[in-house]
């Protein structure tokens, strides 16, 4: 005897979140689980959720700040990282700046005096993505004046397309510009040791310092940016973390502190989004989210570009190298040497 039952009467199991479900909040992301996934190749830049990227950026900044508070440990970690690029830190002589009104650069961990107003956070009603319209330039319309070419002046010569096609090679290069190249980094490293660059950097750093700490923690600040600037991609957050690691650890030109981290977050994310994703949001709107004026946002953006020497090169291999090597090294080193409410090990 057969018994038939309407399929609608069959009770279904309630939906259960599986291990492949994307996190819906930062609380659902575990730094230990993320490190395990990165170590074993389970996750890479293409498999990260935006909350994972925010966690990586937040943890990177906090670890660097903590590490730079202990110069001996910082130099120890930095030496191991530079050795990967064939640079022996003990053989590198750090030049000193002793000119009119300039700080002495014997140790880059001395912070510049605060010179910027505190961040002012405006309560925004609802998150949204903004697009750049023609009238969004407002007061910056005069920043690009009309051409002042004189009458009768001839146009500059150009190379015909046919000639460009003949002289252009599509062969794969040995070391693409968007891949890791130790020799390329060594040139950049020793270029940063020149006195001229050090003098310039000491002035640029002052624009990132705040008079007082904002009411938000670094993680909460990043979540605010994510909430009201939802178009920012995973790659932009990871690229920002890579740039801050490079400036603070590898090149050692940014003494990262709680007082300047917030403006570095704004500058690095803004530069990364403009480099990767064009402009998805008005400058004024992003400034409001970050608690700064459009003028100050532009100022820290330009300052950040000069600190980076306008080298914002990015590629999938570079981001994956940061995630699976540099970030994990930093995290493991801090886990090994720091414990809650305890001094670092000698």
TrEMBL record:
It holds the Pfam family Cyclin. GO terms for cellular component: cyclin-dependent protein kinase holoenzyme complex; nucleus. InterPro entries: Cyclin_PHO80-like. It comes from the Eukaryota. GO terms for molecular function: cyclin-dependent protein serine/threonine kinase regulator activity; protein kinase binding. This is Cyclin-domain-containing protein. It comes from Suhomyces tanzawaensis NRRL Y-17324. The lineage of its organism: Eukaryota, Fungi, Dikarya, Ascomycota, Saccharomycotina.
């Amino acid at each position: 005897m057969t018994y038939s039952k309407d399929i609608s009467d069959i009770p279904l199991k309630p939906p259960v979140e599986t291990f492949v479900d994307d996190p819906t909040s930062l609380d659902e992301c575990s730094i230990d689980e993320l490190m395990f996934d990165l170590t074993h190749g389970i996750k890479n830049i293409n498999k990260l959720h935006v909350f994972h990227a925010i966690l990586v950026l937040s943890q990177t900044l906090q670890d660097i700040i903590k590490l730079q508070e202990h110069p001996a440990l910082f130099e120890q970690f930095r030496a191991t990282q530079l050795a990967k690029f064939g640079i022996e830190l003990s053989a590198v002589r750090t030049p000193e700046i002793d000119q009119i009104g300039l700080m002495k650069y014997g140790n880059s961990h001395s912070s510049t005096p605060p010179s910027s107003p505190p961040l002012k956070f405006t309560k925004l009603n609802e998150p949204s993505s903004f697009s750049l319209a023609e009238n969004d330039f407002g007061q910056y319309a005069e920043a690009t004046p009309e051409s002042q070419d004189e009458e009768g002046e001839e146009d500059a010569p150009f190379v015909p397309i046919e000639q460009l096609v003949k002289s252009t090679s599509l062969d794969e290069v040995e070391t693409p510009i968007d891949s890791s190249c130790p020799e390329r980094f060594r040139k950049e490293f020793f270029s940063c040791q020149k006195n001229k660059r050090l003098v310039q950097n000491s002035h640029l750093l002052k624009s990132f310092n705040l008079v007082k700490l904002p009411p938000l923690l670094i993680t909460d600040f990043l979540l605010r940016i994510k909430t009201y600037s939802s178009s920012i991609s995973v790659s932009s957050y990871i690229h920002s973390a890579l740039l801050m690691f490079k400036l603070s650890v590898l090149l050692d030109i940014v003494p990262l502190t709680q007082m300047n981290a917030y403006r570095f977050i704004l500058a690095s994310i803004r530069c990364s989004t403009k480099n990767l994703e064009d402009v998805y949001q008005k400058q004024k709107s992003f400034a409001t989210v970050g608690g700064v004026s459009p003028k100050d946002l532009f100022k820290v953006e330009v300052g950040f570009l000069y600190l980076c020497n306008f080298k914002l090169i990015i590629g999938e291999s570079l981001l994956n190298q940061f995630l699976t090597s540099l970030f994990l090294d930093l995290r493991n080193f801090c886990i090994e040497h720091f414990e809650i409410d305890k001094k670092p090990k000698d």
